[in-house]
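Work Package 4 report. The design task specified in the project plan requires that, given a folded chain encoded as structure tokens, an amino acid be chosen for each position. We show below one input record used in the internal validation round.
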């Protein structure tokens, strides 16, 4: 009978944790553990006998040493959140442990000892994911020194089973292959680093483009393009207000005598007024309200699910805050005011038609002397 899904999930979380980074590190550990297990099984297989002179205790010792190392590194990785060991520290430790396993296995494997040398290549490749190229190169040299010392010791003390000429040639081939793999993996690491940087730069560029496509650069409000998308989404959300449901209101706002500010004080002063107006108006908006720069000194305000009376109250608060504006370093002849045309959306009316009615109401407000809100 299969265990319940929840039980399997809890067991996996207990063994591998819930942190994605920890989970990835334990996946690498599991891959190396499988390799160790595979090699140990081969060493114990009767068809692949060890060197005739190797004592059985050496085989058992290597097995226990490997099992202890696997368990020890599992505990280190699993408890790394508390120990706070750097990934490079763990990688170097596991790499050195693997090298010692290779040295031991080479000494007792007999005719198959050449196969153990491939373990060095595996060590280099695995460490590539956690170490810098120079660190990987240093670990490769450590492996060469360790394996070279093992070969020298064996040919010096047991030339019958470890002929000096064969050991020398084997070491030369191992060194060449190991350094070649180290160089290639180092280049792969550099390439992966460059690709990661490019991906981050691309993500940043996309965020910038997305911002530029939706936000007005001067006022940091929604731009006209984004506002049209918001209105389209609002139409889809509420194709036609039902009976008893508050409609959406739109208000078209225009800063009074803005051209005079530009003419008398310059465009920098005009920009300062626009930013101040945007900040003041935004401070009085409610959650869900959207204010956009519609063009020049004109702004469009969307008030979803808002009755005209409540919309009037929002505009009154904005008018009071805008009237209190005093842009630093700018002495204006009159306080900053705006005219506005307000209207509620009718039934399933397209927002484009609602905006036209708000524009007519705005014209009436300006014609009537400005600094007022006219409701259509």
């Amino acid at each position: 009978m299969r265990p319940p899904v929840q039980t399997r999930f809890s067991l996996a979380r207990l063994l591998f944790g819930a942190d994605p980074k920890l989970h990835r590190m334990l996946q690498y550990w599991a891959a190396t553990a499988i390799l160790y297990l595979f090699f140990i099984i081969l060493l114990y297989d009767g068809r692949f006998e060890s060197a005739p002179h190797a004592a059985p205790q050496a085989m058992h010792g290597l097995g226990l040493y490997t099992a202890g190392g696997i368990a020890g590194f599992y505990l280190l990785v699993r408890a790394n959140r508390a120990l706070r060991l750097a990934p490079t520290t763990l990688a170097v430790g596991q790499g050195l442990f693997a090298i010692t396993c290779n040295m031991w296995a080479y000494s007792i494997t007999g005719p198959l000892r050449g196969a153990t040398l491939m373990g060095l290549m595996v060590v280099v490749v695995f460490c590539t994911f956690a170490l810098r190229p120079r660190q990987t190169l240093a670990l490769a040299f450590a492996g060469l020194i360790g394996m070279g010392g093992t070969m020298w010791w064996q040919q010096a003390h047991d030339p019958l089973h470890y002929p000096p000429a064969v050991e020398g040639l084997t070491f030369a081939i191992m060194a060449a292959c190991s350094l070649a793999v180290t160089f290639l993996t180092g280049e792969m690491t550099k390439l992966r680093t460059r690709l990661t940087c490019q991906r981050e730069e691309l993500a940043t560029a996309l965020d910038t483009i997305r911002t530029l496509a939706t936000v007005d650069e001067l006022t940091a409000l929604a731009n006209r393009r984004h506002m049209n998308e918001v209105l389209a989404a609002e139409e889809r959300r509420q194709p036609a207000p039902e009976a008893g449901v508050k409609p959406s209101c739109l208000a078209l706002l225009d800063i009074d005598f803005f051209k005079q500010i530009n003419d008398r004080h310059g465009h920098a002063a005009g920009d300062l007024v626009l930013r101040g107006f945007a900040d003041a108006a935004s401070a009085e908006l409610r959650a869900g309200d959207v204010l956009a720069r519609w063009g020049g000194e004109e702004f469009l305000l969307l008030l979803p699910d808002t009755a005209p009376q409540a919309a009037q109250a929002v505009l009154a608060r904005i008018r009071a805050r805008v009237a209190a504006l005093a842009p630093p370093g700018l002495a204006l002849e009159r306080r900053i005011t705006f005219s506005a045309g307000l209207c509620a959306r009718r039934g399933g009316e397209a927002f484009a038609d609602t905006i036209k009615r708000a524009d007519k109401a705005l014209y009436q407000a300006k014609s009537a002397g400005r600094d007022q809100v006219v409701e259509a």
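Strands lie at 249-255, 290-295, 298-303, 338-344, 373-375. Validation will be extended to a larger panel in the next phase.
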